[in-house]
Design a protein that fits this description.
mainly alpha; 2 domains; three-stranded parallel beta sheet; 6 strands; 56% helix; elongated
Length: 185
């Protein structure tokens, strides 16, 4: 038998991949729907996401949940609480895509910068072609430390951030529907 992390089922994505459940993703989607329905800074979003999380942890028996089933669970909670206006606007995009710059630098190997920027551009494009509304890029400091042995750390940091801004904006604008939100840390 396989034990799931925190007893939570995995989320099955439409492309066949699976990812871990992240309550922040559900909360952000509920907040977006509440904003569209006219509820600004809606404090109930976190509580509704928590109730869905508790349901998945305690009562959901399968080891994975598909996005339509997860959407249905959120809609059920919203409707049962009388927030039909929020439910009408609720849409659950794919979970945020997470990208580690340090792992990307390691994958680039001895090709370092040239290979690194090629891989980064490819991953930005892949994220833009997904249904995810958010891309979380992390480990900038670790990446710069790993790659910065050959040149100025500050210059490399600025080049990476500039590349992400330029290519991320182009990739995000090429999407159908909502733009891609990119968070860099």
């Amino acid at each position: 038998m396989i034990a799931l992390l925190d007893g939570m089922p995995l989320v099955s994505l439409p492309d066949g991949r699976s990812t871990t459940f992240d309550k922040r993703w559900i909360t952000a989607s509920i907040m977006s729907a509440a904003e569209q329905a006219g509820h600004h800074r809606w404090w109930l979003a976190e509580h509704i996401a928590e109730s869905v999380s508790v349901y998945l942890h305690r009562d959901f028996e399968a080891t994975s949940v598909e996005i339509p089933n997860l959407t249905e669970a959120v809609l059920h909670v919203l409707d049962s609480l009388g927030f039909h206006d929020v439910a009408m606007h609720f849409r659950l995009p794919d979970p945020p895509v997470s990208l580690s710059l340090t792992e990307l630098a390691r994958e680039a190997g001895d090709g370092y910068e040239l290979a690194f920027f090629g891989l980064l551009g490819e991953r930005l494009q892949r994220a833009a072609s997904s249904r995810a509304a958010r891309l979380e890029i992390h480990d900038l400091s670790g990446c710069v430390r790993l790659m910065g042995r050959r040149r100025s750390v500050q210059g490399l940091r600025e080049e990476i951030v500039g590349f992400i801004r330029q290519h991320g904006q182009v990739a995000g604008e090429s999407r159908l529907g909502e733009p891609l939100e990119i968070q860099l840390s």
